[in-house]
Amino acid sequence: MIARISLIALVVAVVFGACMPATVFAQTPLKVGLILPMTGPMASTGKQVVAAVKLYVAEHGDVVAGRKIEVLLRDDANAAETTKRYAQELVTNDHAEILAGFGLTPLAFAAAPIATAAKVPMIIMSAGTFVIPQKSPYIIRTSFTLPQNTAPIAVWAAKHGIKKVFTLVADYAPGIDSETTFKAVFTANGGQIVGEARVPVQNPDYAPFVQKAKDSKPDALFIFVPSGEGAAVMKQYAERGLAKAGIKLIGPGDVTDDDILDSMGDAAIGTITSMDYSAAHASPENKAYVAAFEKANPGMRPNFMSVGGWDGMALIYEVLKKTNGSAEGDKFLAAAKGLSWMSPRGKITIDPNTRDIIQDEYIREVKRVNGHLWNVEFDHLPAVPPDGKF
Amino acid sequence: MLTVLFDGIASGALLFLLAIGLSITLGIMNFTNLAHGAFAMLGGYLTVVMLNRWGISFFYCLPVAFLAPALAGVILERAFYSRLYDADPLDQVLFTIGLVFASIATASYLMGAQHQIIQVPHFLQGQIHVFSGFDMGTYRLFLLAFCGVITLLLHLVLMRTRFGSRLRAAVDNGRIARGLGINVNRLFAVTFGVGSGLAGLAGALGIEILNLDPVFPVKFLVYFLIVVAVGGTGTVGGPLAAALILGIFDVAGKYYVSQIGAFVIYAVMVAMLIWRPQGLFGKKAVR
Question: A14: pLDDT confidence band, cut at 50, 70 and 90?
């Protein structure tokens, strides 16, 4: 009996002894909890962000300020309850020091209290509703806001002979954000809203709504739909002959999502949108980014969701260099505020007051270039603030 | 307004084609097959692969979209479903829901989670301008015509062929039908196959109108069940009437009262079931 116990004790001691040197001499890895919808209707968002995150780590190495970055990916399948649970597990069980991702507004809302309670920096790489950073003092956003992406097209439309607009948006927070911003800015610039409709997010059937828009005889149809739904809307736009009836298609760039733009066919040509990122953006950083992205993910073009992920990682790396490897909540936030760097989309800055993103906006038109469809930029508004008031 | 009516009828026709298989199998086999949408999804994805990757013309994809799910249906019916005919309805539901989840995961793995887009033949795109205020979508017109032909075929098979009369006998009273020497098991297998094949065909036709993604079976399950519940099981006329009514009210609701548009279909269902709980043309099946 005693011999057996001492044998067990000996084995345990040896095992511990073998592990000890490893933990004592190495710096602890920095775990980043990445919570994204990888399945379900928003899966394309998750895939784009993950691809960009992986690309960033592959290009910049996984060691920053002496710490090895470990990305722990969790699929919340678009369910806020799951997001909250994963956020909790990542922080308490896996000792994640940074939370990132968040494909939709309700998911970000669900995780915000966890970030506040655990004092963990939370980086929004996808969601776009304006109020998200207000939900926790530890939230920083690297994606975009709907007011930011919508105000420019509203101003452009009013200045270019579009007097009457019918608005059609998906019935959830970003959609309503976009609709509110467009209505306010467009009417302030002398335009008139002839009708509005909201489409349910769950089972979107755009046919009757697009028909109603056509019957209202506007100069343009303003559309906001979740990333990936643009194709269905474009089909209805083409099928019902809105272009022939002289109705232009405008909106934030979500409807001409780079990920699916090429498969939309000729119906998309001529659509004018405003957005923070186009894969056709002609800067050396973006050319390198698109080339590397397409090489690492054959057949996949980077879209605006992916740059949110890329810049989220860039933020983490830059801040860690400043704080010397510490991701402690208050230190991280202090170092992040006011940080500015060159992204594939242009110059971006983290606003110190709102912890939201200030970035350039572009007006683009869908054109066929070299046989493929691209969002070709033709106008540019520098440093648009998150509330869209430029 | 006529455009809305036309769109609603086309939508109803597609819904009918999707749900008729479920109605027949529920009627004759009394088996709650919640995996019906999975066969529709199979037809849809096969069409996407054939059209987009192999460049096969849309019209040649349609027979395959019928045959492959039909075959899959017959195999599954003989292998799994037949064991559960006398089981508790809850067991049947559990099995079929499990099948649905398996099919969703498989589709997601093989085809990715995004909506599938196809380009239908050029002459089916666009609209036909009939007169001011009334345009008919060419594809929807094609859909309507196609569904009309299928409905006529179904009616003829059920009413004018021996197979049809055997099927109707099995629906009315399975025990006596067996007693008369009708091979009810083989009848079930063939019927299940045809029902699944029709679902697959509808899935292929519906890619253009509904959104095809891996969660299709779950998303549209409610619509199939509404059509079957309101129309009554075991008949062709019931689900047809129900699907048309539901299609028209759904489209009209979304057009005229956009704020609650998506809810109109449920309100109509509740109203119709209060009025006729057994369905429009439903009969009580005897086992």
Answer: low
Residue A7, domain member (yes or no): no
Residues of A with CB under 8 A from a CB of B: 38-41, 43-44, 47, 197-198, 200, 202-205, 207-209, 211-212, 215, 228-229, 231-232, 235, 238-241, 259-260, 263-265
Mean pLDDT (chain B) is 85
Say how many domains are in chain A: 2
In a domain, residue A288? The reply is: no
Q: Tell me: the pLDDT tens digits for A291-309?
A: 999 999 988 899 999 999 9
Long-range Cβ contact pairs of A242-248 (< 8 A, separation 24 or more): A242/A210, A242/A213, A242/A214, A243/A267, A243/A270, A245/A214, A245/A217, A246/A219, A247/A213, A247/A214, A247/A217, A247/A218, A247/A219, A247/A220, A247/A221, A248/A162, A248/A219, A248/A220, A248/A221, A248/A272
- Model's pTM, two decimal places? 0.80
Is A111 in the same domain as A77? yes
The domain B2-121+137-275: what is its CATH number? 1.10.3470
The answer to whether residue A115 sits within a structural domain is: yes
Closest CA relative to residue A364, chosen from A272, A289, A276, A297? A272
Domain that holds residue A259: 147-275+362-384
Residue type, A56: Y
Q: How many CB pairs under 8 A join A and B?
A: 77
> What is the ipTM score, two decimals?
0.73
Q: What is the pLDDT of residues B242-269, one digit of tens each?
A: 999 989 998 888 888 877 777 888 888 8
Distance, CA of B217 to CA of B40 (rounded, Å): 8
Say which CATH number the domain at A173 has.
3.40.50.2300
Q: Is residue A31 over pLDDT 90?
A: yes
